[in-house]
Amino acid sequence: MATNETIKRRAVLDAVSHAAEKFEDDIVRLGKRCLSVFGAKGKTQMSNLERAGLTSRRFGNVVGFVKRQTGKDDKGQNWSKKQGGQPRLGEELVGLLERIKQAADSLCIEPPLNEARNEVRLRLASACLRNLHSAYLFDLTLSEKG
């Protein structure tokens, strides 16, 4: 017989898995944007972004990481780079994270997920950032092979 924790854990994983699929188009688009901003030298930036999603204990720390990276880019060459009327990459990533937070919160209305709001936020952000890193690497490989 499954314990309440096991039931909650399964519910979190199922909910995150389904919710992450809804961000696929945004992630593919942002993966291309990250490649155009960072180029081939962005592997470390993307790894650090993914790591922030995987290791943070609070969702706000992930958003804080993006804001900090954007603020540190005082030359406007990476995170704060503007391209053709688009918002800065950091702004777009913060926007994605805010949509992820809203999606996670909408999943956490009823038991057992209402007791796991932060975990759902973090797991969904982590899944999306991992997929973003993968999209970036995929596009990088395709661009290098011509």
Give the biggest beta sheet.
none
Mean pLDDT: 93
Low-confidence segments: none
Shape: elongated
Estimate the helix proportion, in percent. Answer: over 70%
**Number of helical segments?**
6
Number of strands: 0
Q: Structurally, how many domains make up the residues?
A: 1
- Radius of gyration based on Cα positions: 16 Å
Q: Alpha-carbon distance between the termini?
A: 54 Å
Classify the beta-strand content into a percent band.
Answer: under 5%
Helix- and strand-based class? mainly alpha
What would you say this structure looks like, in words?
Helix 1 runs parallel beside helix 6 (117-145) and helix 2 crosses helix 6. The chain has one domain (4-73, 86-145). The chain has 146 residues and is an all-alpha fold. It has six helices and no strands. It has helices at residues 4-21, 24-38, 43-55, 59-72, 89-107, 117-145. 74% of the residues lie in helices and 0% in strands. The protein is elongated, with a radius of gyration of 16 Å. The relative contact order is 0.20.
Keywords for this structure?
mainly alpha, elongated, 6 helices
Short recap of the structure:
With 146 residues, this protein is mainly α. The protein has helices spanning 4-21, 24-38, 43-55, 59-72, 89-107, 117-145.
